[in-house]
Amino acid sequence: MLREKGNHVIFSVARGANKIEIKKAVEALFNVHVENVRTMNMKGKTKRWGLRHYERADWKKAIVTLREGETIELYEGV
Asked: Which of the ends of the chain has fewer CB neighbours closer than 10 A, N or C?
């Protein structure tokens, strides 16, 4: 999980995952009801280390909207 704001939660997911798979996985893992899933492919950043240039791997981001009043408690009991 990257971020949580209101009833939206942002995850970094596998690049081959689709919206239906993401919805089923979140509902099964966190025992919540998912209203909507939005996905976007993020391009890896170009970095430098000395004179060498390299590019970080591309990744996929999923914005999951939960049912009103539900949250994901990731750090219970800490």
From this structure: C
What is the pTM assigned to this prediction? 0.81
Say if 73 falls within a structural domain.
Answer: no
What residue type is 30 in one-letter code?
F
Q: What is the pLDDT of residues 9-23, one digit of tens each?
A: 999 999 999 999 999
Backbone φ/ψ region at 19: left (φ over 0), alpha (ψ -120 to 50), beta: alpha
CATH number at residue 26: 3.30.70.330
How many domains does the structure of the chain reveal?
1
- Please provide residue 72's backbone torsions phi and psi, each rounded to the nearest 5 degrees: -105, 115
Q: Distances in Å between the alpha carbon of 78 and those of 2, 16, 30, 75?
A: 18, 33, 17, 6
